[in-house]
Model the fold of this input.
Amino acid sequence: NAGVTQTPKFRVLKTGQSMTLLCAQDMNHEYMYWYRQDPGMGLRLIHYSVGEGTTAKGEVPDGYNVSRLKKQNFLLGLESAAPSQTSVYFCASSYLNTDTQYFGPGTRLTVL
Amino acid sequence: EDQVTQSPEALRLQEGESSSLNCSYTVSGLRGLFWYRQDPGKGPEFLFTLYSAGEEKEKERLKATLTKKESFLHITAPKPEDSATYLCAVQVRTGNQFYFGTGTSLTVIP
Done:
């Protein structure tokens, strides 16, 4: 089992560019989450999904979109990147919403 | 407003010197409290889940406890390999939101 994987590991964007971060899990988990982690702020929930074809907003959803077309994948999109979106992005998954979340290794994104 | 606060921000211990990390929370109904360990450049790794006041869980040198307002992560006779950032998170009863604290950075000196 690979667990939760994230692609890419690092990325540098210019302001206004777009990109998609891919999260994949092989644990057959129903729930998937996208967080961002910033110094002094802790992990903050961006969007989450309670199952294939569903998505919902978290604490800081502005500027991001997500899709869950397949149960094992959860995509995070930035349509027009801004410097404020420079962060480390973590994906997580869990079997139930009350269950342990398993995290991926993270994607370090820099927006210039 | 739901809030999670961890203290101290940083802690340096000598190898073998026991101590405790604190996670205090103010949430509108606690569903569960989670402790994670995070090593530099990696994702958080699950340690414990606590659901009700009075509950305790142990794993090797770590022991987590929960009251109605806070949780403690006790580290007994720590080793250098216990050096990491320890994160606390709470899940509220309504919705699927998890709120994370900013973490305690632990350094254990040989």
Observations:
- Chain A touches chain B at residues 4, 31, 33, 35, 40-45, 48, 50, 56, 58-59, 90, 92, 97-98, 100-106 (CB under 8 Å).
- Chain A has a mean pLDDT of 94.
- DSSP finds no helices and eleven strands in chain A.
- The CA atoms of residues 13 and 111 of chain A lie 5 Å apart.
